[in-house]
Amino acid sequence: MNFSPSASANTVTCFMGTAFLLALLGGFLSDSYLTTYCIYVISAITQLLGLLILTLQAHSSSLQPPVLISATRNRRATPSSRPTRTTLPNTTFLDRAISDPPGPHDDPQYSPWLHCTVSQVEDSKSVLRTLPIFASTVMLNCCLAQLSTFSVQQAATMDTRLVGTTFRVPPASLPVFPVLFVLILAPVYNHVILPFFSRRDTGSEPGITHLQRIGTGLGFSVLAMATAALVETKRKRAAARSGLAGSTEPIPITFLWVALQYLFLGSADLFSLAGQMEFFFSEAPAGMRSLATSLSWASLAVGYYLSSVLVGLVNWATGRLPGGPWLRGSNLNRYRLERFYWLMCGLSGLNLLQYVFWARRYRYRAAAEGGGGGGRGEEEDGDEGGA
């Protein structure tokens, strides 16, 4: 659609962020009004219609938004004759909400906004205690957003032929790599990793706690961004050696180098997404589990939005430097993409450190309800540091 690499990346991340954010609405409707099956059907039909409209819009220039907007704004003008071309430690303050109602619920003095039960307050605490964990996963999903944006654009400038063949792989199909890696790694995870950890006393029935899974995924995201930066450096050096830095011709370096960052990000997704969904489901109140599970997709949405914000902030901050913005222009070879990846690596490392801070202090809902301040809860807290 004639976008620059950075503009197209922001468009994709904003679209994906909006799509994932709607999972919160689906979870709320599923818990409150409709059944889960109805939400699945409605969501599938809505997405199918959206894809059909997007396909028609991309195919026909007369259906693209700029044309429609321009036609609306200029509706009074004379038509042109040109033809068109076809864990929170301080939640005790919430206890103040607990009070005995002055009378029955039909009493005029009764208000659900002023009088809460113990179970309502404890459910609120459970939700609030998960928010730091939720916030810690946003940066990981910001890294995952690079799979469908800059990573694809990197591969498009490289030799996309399979080794030993003349078949060229479409760059847009590269996001299938993390799916393949997950299909390969999932049996290894279930039959090798979990049995290994089950020999340790982690206090978790499957052998590894939910928070440890999320922490492992965050660690893989740091490795993925470092790998992406190194691969981009290698790609630009190959372009300089071959004299193609200012050209749009394919660089004589195989696109399979990009698969390395897909491998690490696929591993991060394998650990973190499963850990998030199980964590939010088990820690949420019974009546909010569908909504809580959708927090995993909300984290993806915020991560995609954050990617768009970061690209804009990086261009704004580096625009005053002698070399100009890092991520602006139509030629990816002129970008400072490796610096952007190193920035993402550093932010992911800081995010991992603050996640460990919260995870070590988090007490699981079952331990908090069953053991009070017992030692078992402290043991579980200590285990999270291994994430």
From TrEMBL:
<feature type="compositionally biased region" description="Acidic residues">
    <location>
        <begin position="378"/>
        <end position="387"/>
    </location>
</feature>
<dbReference type="InterPro" id="IPR036259">
    <property type="entry name" value="MFS_trans_sf"/>
</dbReference>
<feature type="transmembrane region" description="Helical">
    <location>
        <begin position="7"/>
        <end position="28"/>
    </location>
</feature>
<keyword id="KW-0472">Membrane</keyword>
<dbReference type="GO" id="GO:0022857">
    <property type="term" value="F:transmembrane transporter activity"/>
</dbReference>
<keyword id="KW-1133">Transmembrane helix</keyword>
<feature type="transmembrane region" description="Helical">
    <location>
        <begin position="172"/>
        <end position="193"/>
    </location>
</feature>
<feature type="transmembrane region" description="Helical">
    <location>
        <begin position="214"/>
        <end position="231"/>
    </location>
</feature>
<feature type="transmembrane region" description="Helical">
    <location>
        <begin position="339"/>
        <end position="358"/>
    </location>
</feature>
<keyword id="KW-0812">Transmembrane</keyword>
<feature type="transmembrane region" description="Helical">
    <location>
        <begin position="295"/>
        <end position="319"/>
    </location>
</feature>
<dbReference type="InterPro" id="IPR000109">
    <property type="entry name" value="POT_fam"/>
</dbReference>
<comment type="similarity">
    <text>Belongs to the major facilitator superfamily. Phosphate:H(+) symporter (TC 2.A.1.9) family.</text>
</comment>
<feature type="transmembrane region" description="Helical">
    <location>
        <begin position="34"/>
        <end position="56"/>
    </location>
</feature>
<dbReference type="GO" id="GO:0016020">
    <property type="term" value="C:membrane"/>
</dbReference>
<comment type="similarity">
    <text>Belongs to the major facilitator superfamily. Proton-dependent oligopeptide transporter (POT/PTR) (TC 2.A.17) family.</text>
</comment>
<feature type="transmembrane region" description="Helical">
    <location>
        <begin position="251"/>
        <end position="274"/>
    </location>
</feature>
<dbReference type="Pfam" id="PF00854">
    <property type="entry name" value="PTR2"/>
</dbReference>
<feature type="region of interest" description="Disordered">
    <location>
        <begin position="368"/>
        <end position="387"/>
    </location>
</feature>
<protein>
    <submittedName>
        <fullName>Protein NRT1/ PTR FAMILY 4.6</fullName>
    </submittedName>
</protein>
